[in-house]
Amino acid sequence: QVQLVESGGGLVQPGGSLRLSCAASGPIFSINGMGWYRQTPGKQRELVAAIRSGGDNHYADSVKGRFTISRGNAKNTVYLQMNSLKPEDTAVYYCNADVLSASSGYRRDYWGQGTQVTVSS
Questions:
Q1: What's the confidence (pLDDT) of residue 20?
Q2: Partners of residue 24 on adjacent β-strands
Q3: Distance (Å, rounded) from C-alpha 27 to C-alpha 3?
Q4: What does pLDDT average to in each consecutive run of 10 residues of the chain (121 residues)?
Q5: 119: β partners
Q6: What does residue 77 show for φ and ψ, rounded to 5 degrees?
Q7: Cβ neighbours of 2 (radius 10 Å)
């Protein structure tokens, strides 16, 4: 079973920084892309940033210039460097991966369990 495990969330003051990490493990043949989403109570999950295997990055307008997404050398990991954090960035952040399974041969999305980011003074 493919699993995504996130880490790095926490409480930070406005203007501060956090770095989220996500590692994928299990029967993975390849990962086409990875990304970060976030969700607050009563709202739909929204895309924050995504990166494709070709290196093409996409960011939500609200985080452009403040957040940076990157893949690890092993390509099974993805990071989200968050700078100049604002209270409105408070949310549960979820890691997502578009995985071609080595066991089933099927391609599907997988999700992490989520990590809480709270921006507050």
A1: 98
A2: 4
A3: 9
A4: 94 98 94 95 96 86 97 89 98 96 91 97 95
A5: 12
A6: -120, 150
A7: 18
Do 69 and 51 meet the contact criterion of CB atoms below 8 Å apart?
yes
As a whole number of Å, the end-to-end CA separation of the chain is: 40
CA distance 48 to 38: 7
d(CA 11, CA 121): 9
Residue 58, C-beta contacts closer than 8 angstroms, at least 6 positions apart? 47, 49, 50, 51
User: For the stretch 82-103, what's the b/e string if a residue is b when 16 or more beta carbons lie within 10 angstroms of its beta carbon?
Assistant: beebeeebbbbbbbbbbbbbee
Kind of pairing between the strands at 115-119 and 10-12: parallel
Say how far apart CA 20 and CA 18 lie, in whole Å.
7
Rg (CA), the chain: 14
Round to whole Å and give the CA distance between 55 and 42: 33
pLDDT at 53: 77
Q: What is the pLDDT of residue 74?
A: 77
